[in-house]
Amino acid sequence: MDKKAMYKISYGLFVVTAALNGKDNGCITNTLMQVTSEPNRVSVTVNKANLTHDMIMESKSFTASVISCEADFDLFKHFGFQSGRDVDKFCGYTDCKRGSNGEMYVTKGINAFISGKVCQTVDLGTHTMFIADVTDMEVISDAPSATYEYYQSNIKPKPQAVGTAPDGQTIWRCTICGYEYVGEELPEDFICPLCKHPASDFEKVVKEAEKEEAVPVGKTESGQTIWRCTVCGYEYIGDELPEDYTCPLCGVPASEFEKV
User: Fold this and answer.
1) pTM of this structure
2) Structural domains of the chain, with CATH
3) What confidence tens digit (pLDDT) does each residue in 62-114 have?
4) Cα dist from 84 to 15, 80, 155, 175, whole Å
C-alpha cells in the first residue's frame, strides 16, 4: 500500500481551546469536522498527551478557531510549539476573546469559531474523539481557510539553501522549524528564535565543499537515521523509531513518521 495516499486528504487547521477551573488552554489540530447537520454536530480528535485533551474530557466543552490563510507562523508557534503543562498560553495573549461558553477563541489569523458541548467520546488509543453538539458559531472574516498543504508551502519558514553561509562558515539548522544559525560553533545555551527549541534540536548542515563526503540520505553526520513526522515535520534522530513513540509537537503516533 502507498501510505502517501493519506496525504491527499484535505485537512483544515484549528486552534482548539478549553477552560477548566479558571485556566484556559489551547492546541493546534487538523481533526475538526462536521459529522451531522441535524442535529448540528462536529467531532474533534485530540492526543491524550495534550493538556487540552484532559480539560475537554472534564469540562465536556471546547471551542475551535478556524485558522485562515492570513495566519502567520507565530500563531502555530504559540499554540503548537509549547505545552500548556509548562506555560500559560493565554497569559499576555491579546488576540482572543471569551465566548458565550466561557472559553477563549482566537481573533487574529482565523475566519470563524465553533463551540461545542461534548455528547459522546470515542477512545482511539493514543487519542480521544470528542463528538459535540454545536452551541455557538460565528464567522470572523472572509479570508479562506488554511489547509495543511498551505501551511507547509506558505506559512512554515523555509530553510536557506545548503552552502549559502558567508565565508565558508558552518550552518546549524533547527530540525523543528528549519531556522538556520550561521557560525562555526552553536552556543550550548542557544534557543531557536522561531520555535524556542534548544541547541540540542539543531544539526550541522553539510556545506557544498563537503558534499562528496556526505552521509547517505536519511542519516545525520554522525550516521544516525532521521525519522520525520509527516503531519508537522518534527524529526526524530535514532537508528530505530520506538513503536510507541508520539510526536512531541502534534501528538501523532510513530506510524505517521517516515524515514527521510
Assistant:
1) 0.70
2) 3-150 (2.30.110.10), 157-259 (2.20.28.10)
3) 999 999 999 999 999 899 888 898 899 999 999 999 999 999 999 999 999 99
4) 13, 10, 23, 22
